[in-house]
Design brief:
heterodimer; A: mainly alpha; two-stranded antiparallel sheet; 13 helices; globular; B: mainly alpha; 2 strands; 77% helix
Chain lengths: 330, 288
């Protein structure tokens, strides 16, 4: 492990520890739950940052796996009455869904805008389907799917093996912080290894990577499935701080997600996380101003980002910083 | 028998609607390789242009056939100048920038007109098919879709602009070397696509009503139809509209509207998987 990588992991762990120790003490309950939602969204942004920024796969429907994770968690937690079983199921379902969809797309040699069209379509189908599951006949085991209303009685995480000891919002915030740090560290390690290097090589030039003997389809499938798993984890965190509903699949979220990654910076892991925090803070603020419309702000922000800062915030800052120190960057 | 005619009319209306909402996007994608994700909002602006004109006492047909396409076409010209032109050749960046435009337009129109449904009732009354009533306006829409297809074909095949546009589409560098002002061709093409979209928005306004967020209901379907159709814009969009529109309406008729929509989307996924370059990537390759 290189020294830089070790340092970055140490900083991530330190920041997570600091946030877990300090924020639950100083933030009011409402702000803390909001912060948990922000973190869940940052995990989601990380999943798209990984597959788009490093894998070169632009998924317009990453929320499909986010929603599947949330729904799988809620249904399993209601049925088993213990989140010990619900969490692995909620990670497995979106991973398998991503693997299935990825096999369908990448082994069919579908790329670019067509991947965008298919992922968008899948999330639309799930959105329509989840909206239409109102009524008693739509239930999985004990869990009613609730149609448009979702599942307001989504259970909270509990101490493993002890279903009565559900976690407090403070504890769930701490879980979320460490989940984000863990995903970040795992992604960092993965990208530093052989698998990550091949994935980036395929993003840069798929034909060349294939001529060197790497099966691009397999690597794309791998990174896409991992992205599905991380999006599913974000879904679990979201389900624990709000509750699951069809909006998790909506174009509103998948659109915002792309904006977070775009503003934060593609090709970095920290960028999407910062982008998610920053843009959510701006939209939350715009939502409290009655004269402003959050959509207008988001849209103008995205246009400015694409036209004026196509690399995104973090890479642009890094470049400026490097120039000031006189370092030549390629 | 009556039922059969009624279902057939329903299917044809579904196909015509899909064709109308996709045509402008297809012209822009086929000619320029640009996916305009603000397409749904262009439809919305066309609808608002028509509705506001009608409210100010302008004749309904003038509003739909003249004002809506002119207003949106002009707007398209401005968008091309300020945004699309700077991003030529960068497909993903163009998609993202136009998506930003889409969100901004939704927000701004909501701030100006409020989040309420506006509309005017469909003209022409209804026709009787056996024991089923059918809106005559739907029949008119089918005719309008057919007419537009013919019109676009004539413009591209039989006019000097069409020749320049097709030449630019096939080989922009060669066209430029021969003295074609390709930038101007692109600008006119984008404005034309926007005008077609505005027209579609005006035509659909009486049926769907007009809300700031109406574009989001259309953009995904239009995008998927165009991608399924492939590069040959007219034949591709027509064949994709026929297949997907029929699947959607028949699915709705046999089950529920939600499952009908799902049938449309599922068929699109299968088609893109089987024909990764769209329907016209395999069939009718030399068509327009």
């Amino acid at each position: 492990m290189s020294r830089k990588l070790f340092l970055e992991i140490a900083i991530a762990l330190f920041l997570a520890l600091a946030a877990a120790l300090v924020l639950p003490r100083v933030l009011a309950l409402f702000a803390l739950i909001n912060a948990t939602v922000f973190i869940a969204m940052a995990v989601l942004a990380l999943s798209l940052g990984l597959i788009w920024g490093f894998g070169g796969i632009l998924s317009f429907g990453q929320t499909a796996f986010f929603g599947l994770g949330g729904y799988a968690y809620a249904v399993a937690a209601i049925n088993f009455n213990d989140s010990l079983y619900a969490v692995p199921i909620a990670l497995l379902v979106p991973t398998l869904a991503a693997a299935g969809l990825g096999y369908f797309m990448f082994y069919g040699r579908i790329s670019d805008v067509y991947v965008g069209a298919i992922t968008l379509t899948v999330s639309l189908i799930l959105f329509n389907f989840a909206n239409s599951t109102a009524g008693e006949e739509w239930r999985i085991g004990e869990a009613p799917l609730g149609g448009f209303n979702g599942i307001p009685s989504t259970p909270q995480l509990n101490v493993p093996g002890n279903p009565d000891a559900t976690l407090s919002p403070q504890a769930i915030f701490i879980v979320a912080v460490f989940a984000l740090a863990l995903c970040y560290i795992l992604a960092k390690l993965l990208l530093a290894g052989r698998f990550g290097r091949v994935v980036v090589a395929i993003r840069e030039n798929e034909t060349r990577a294939e001529l060197l003997g790497y099966d691009a389809r397999r690597y794309k499938l791998g990174i896409f499935s991992l992205g599905g798993a991380i999006a599913g984890l974000a879904g679990i965190l979201f389900a624990n701080s709000v509750f699951v509903s069809p909006t998790m699949f909506s174009l509103f979220y998948s659109g915002q997600l792309i904006i977070w990654v775009m503003v934060g910076g593609r090709g970095t892991l920290l960028g999407p996380i910062l982008g998610a925090f920053l843009v959510q803070a701006i939209t939350t603020w715009a939502g409290t101003e009655p004269r402003l419309n959050p959509n207008a702000i988001l849209g103008i922000l995205l246009m400015l980002a694409v036209m004026g800062m196509p690399r995104g915030l973090l890479p642009t800052l890094r470049l400026a910083w490097g120039r000031r120190r006189g370092v030549q960057l390629a | 028998m009556d039922l059969l005619v009624a279902v057939a009319l329903q299917v044809m209306t579904g196909i015509a609607t899909l064709f109308l909402i996709s045509l402008g996007l297809a012209v822009i994608f086929g000619m320029m390789g640009v996916i305009n994700l603000a397409h749904g909002e262009f439809l919305m602006l066309g609808g608002y242009a028509a509705i506001l004109s009608v409210r100010h006492g302008i004749n309904l047909w003038v509003a739909m056939f003249l004002i809506a396409p002119l207003a949106v076409g002009l707007f398209g010209l401005i968008v091309e100048r300020l945004m699309i032109r700077r991003l030529y050749g960068q497909m993903v960046e163009t998609m993202l920038a136009t998506w930003g435009l889409s969100l901004a337009l939704i927000g701004i129109v909501t701030m100006v007109f409020g989040n309420t449904v506006g509309g005017f009732s469909a003209p022409l009354g209804s026709v009787q098919v056996g024991k089923f009533q059918f809106s005559a306006y739907s029949l008119f829409l089918i005719g309008a879709a057919g007419l537009l297809a013919v019109l676009v074909w004539i413009v591209l095949r039989r006019t000097p602009y069409g020749l320049l546009a097709r030449g630019t589409m096939q080989n922009a560098e060669m066209a430029a070397a021969l003295g074609v002002a390709t930038e101007r061709v692109y600008a006119v093409t984008f404005a034309l696509g926007a005008a077609l979209t505005g027209l579609a928005g005006g035509l659909l306004a009486p049926l769907s009503g007009v809300v700031p967020t109406m574009g989001t209901a259309y953009i995904a379907k239009a995008f998927i139809t165009v991608i399924t159709g492939g590069a040959a814009m007219l034949v591709g969009t027509l064949s994709a509209s026929v297949l997907l529109g029929a699947a959607g309406v028949l699915g709705t008729f046999l089950t529920t509207p939600v499952l009908g929509e799902a049938a449309l989307l599922a068929l699109a996924i299968v088609l893109v998987r089987l024909l990764p370059r769209g329907i016209t990537g395999r069939f009718f390759q030399r068509a327009l």
